[in-house]
Amino acid sequence: MTIIESSVEIGLPIDKVYNFLEDLNNHQQLMPDNIYNWSSTADEASFTIQNMAKLAIKISSRLPNSEITAVPTEKPPFDVELKWTVAPNDNGGTTAKHIISADLNMMMKMLAAGPLQKLADHQTQKLKEILG
């Protein structure tokens, strides 16, 4: 299993960050420009990644003010889990971490690991921009 992580410090209380992340409608704001055909509800989202694939995800679990996990609703090219965790930090704010777990063979890892890391980093930076 390939684990890709990106974390960011946000100067807001944990419940505010969690409430934003638990609604998949908000995740469109976190996506890079190569994501299009976005459609979402609070619990499900589908979108197309330019030159790659169409992906549909749904929230599989929520631990209030701690963790949100999403998994594909249709069979993807490889098994993947998207998780956000939130935890209080020493500054009275929140540390948000985006964790992508993907079951990649060696060939897929060479192709996908870089773009997945770029996606995770982009999403955490956008979260910081939006929530400040």
Can you describe this structure?
The protein is an alpha+beta fold. The chain has a single domain (2-131), classed as START domain (Alpha-D-Glucose-1,6-Bisphosphate, Chain A, domain 4, 2-Layer Sandwich), CATH 3.30.530.20. It is 26% helix and 42% strand. It is built from two helices and seven strands; from the N terminus they run βαββββββα. The protein has helices at 14-21, 106-131; strands at 2-10, 35-40, 44-49, 53-63, 67-72, 80-88, 94-102. A hairpin with a 5-residue loop joins strand 6 and strand 7. The termini are far apart. 22% of the residues are buried.
In whole angstroms, how far apart are the ends? 32 Å
Quickly count the domains.
1
For the record, the CATH architecture stands as: 2-Layer Sandwich
Secondary structure: number of strands: 7
Text of the CATH class: Alpha Beta
What string, H for helix and E for strand, traces the elements in order?
EHEEEEEEH
CATH superfamily annotation:
START domain
CATH topology heading:
Alpha-D-Glucose-1,6-Bisphosphate, Chain A, domain 4
Tell the overall outline: globular
Alpha-beta classification = alpha+beta
Overall pLDDT confidence? 93
Number of helices: 2
Protein name: SRPBCC family protein
Organism: Pedobacter polaris
InterPro entries: START-like_dom_sf (IPR023393)
